[in-house]
Amino acid sequence: MRTKKVFAIVGFIIVWTFFTYFLLCSQIEFPLHKNRISQLNQLRADAQKEYKKSESHLVRLMDILKAKYYVPQLTPGPVNIVALSGEEPLGLLQPPGDNINLNSNNNVLMQEGIDQFAYNNSITKTTIALPTKPAITRLPNGEPVIPILVFACNRVSISKCLNNLVQYRPSAEQFPIIVSQDCGDEATKNVILSFKSTVSLIEQPDQSDIYVPPKEKKFKGYYKIARHYGWALNTTFHKGYEFVVIVEDDLNIAPDFFEYFLGTHKLLKQDPTLWCVSAWNDNGKANFIDTSQPELLYRTDFFPGLGWMLTKELWQELSVKWPKSFWDDWIRHPEQRKDRVCIRPEISRTQTFGKIGVSNGLFFDKYLKHIKLSEDFVKFTKLNLSYLLKENYDRIFLSKIYTYPIVTYDELRRNLIKTDGPVRIQYTTSTQYKLTTRMLGLMDDFKSGVPRTGYHGIVSFYYQKRRVYLAPNANWKGYDLSWS
């Protein structure tokens, strides 16, 4: 009996202990646990507060931008200015081509057109463009749409360039003309706008001062040009085009300018050793070209520029490491060129009239103003241009040149050569090359060791009704950077 009482008392004590323990735990929190919960609740409240504040600012900003910059699309309509005026409302870091999606209360704000550009792997500028109609990048017949991207700043004489382009353009649908303006010069902008629906205008939004190392202050213009090129190419290719032809605002074009690029654009896709097509011949003075062969084209290791076409794939490669200045010299470096070449014509399809610029007329009076512009219309789309593919070109071009007789400059000048046909002047040092080119009147400089118009070190030109090749010896080992 006593045993039963003992068990009953012990059982009561155990039940009472468990009941008391759980009752207390349900009402009392440990101090540490309670402190953490309080901190988390505060952080969550702060985060929600900041999110609502940012969302409110963004909605207000989008309303302001739409009211200030939105231009209804008309057909036909005025020039479509798609870039914002230089304001940078938000620092949204997002890869080019993505959309911004901001969700709030099941409402989604969609803002397309993030133009972003990287300098030395760091994002330096982000702008928001208003929604525009998607670009047509292919014609119904399958041919690509190739925009002509004209770079402008403060030259009102851009009217000459645009008149030329509009005059010779065979199709506004296939060759939309996009003028990208830097500087914000109103007089130049008004000239561009006067062309109305025949061209589109985009404006480089970043008009802030640009950092230039103290020793390069006089080259600030080149820094701004590089920034402009990067932004404009990024903006244009972002629309989905496969090719872009770059034209400066001080260029006139030949009647077959568009036909030239139509006939050669496929080669850029066929031959991975090609990376551009240029309309320019650096040694294209009238006395150095064969005017009877306007259809003649060459491969060249030298990047000519001055009216040139590149592909979307090349821009994707170059854009991530685009330089802060001197982009044209940078693009000629072996690290960028990677032994790839350009196509260039015997007779230039562009001609520059811009003596005044950031280069202060360098080479203009002596060389550039004397470049002959082709006057013939060559149907390049009807020609077989497969000879320009590397395998064919090297087999024919290189093998023939070293069979031609070697002559001296004096023999050439005095017409003492007894045989007809092409000849070769040989050089082995940079000094020999420069001396010969200066006597002839050719451009004598090197960029990254490559002479202008050179291919495997060979420079082709026409002299006194004879084809002449200024060439290194047959065991040439490649370009020497020290020659620059």
Describe this structure in words.
This protein is of the alpha/beta class and 484 residues long. Helix content is 33%, strand content 18%. It contains 12 helices and 19 strands. It has helices spanning 2-27, 31-69, 158-168, 186-193, 220-237, 257-270, 312-319, 327-331, 334-337, 390-401, 409-413, 430-440, and strands at 100-104, 107-111, 114-119, 122-128, 148-152, 177-181, 200-203, 243-248, 251-253, 274-278, 297-300, 308-311, 341-345, 350-352, 423-427, 446-447, 450-451, 459-463, 466-472. An 8-stranded mixed beta sheet has the order 7-6-5-8-12-10-13-11, sandwiched between helices. Strands 15-19-18 form a 3-stranded mixed beta sheet. A hairpin with a 2-residue loop joins strand 3 and strand 4 (122-128).
Quickly list its features:
single chain, 484 residues, alpha/beta, eight-stranded mixed β-sheet, three-stranded mixed β-sheet, 12 helices, 18% strand, elongated
Order of strands in the sheet with most strands: 7-6-5-8-12-10-13-11
Q: What separation lies between the terminal Cα atoms?
A: 115 Å
Strand content: 15-25%
Radius of gyration: 33 Å
The helical percent reads 25-40%
SS elements, strand count: 19
Q: Outline the low-pLDDT stretches.
A: 24-33, 66-131
Whole-number average pLDDT?
82
**Main sheet: strands, sense, barrel:** 8 strands, mixed
Give the overall shape. Answer: elongated
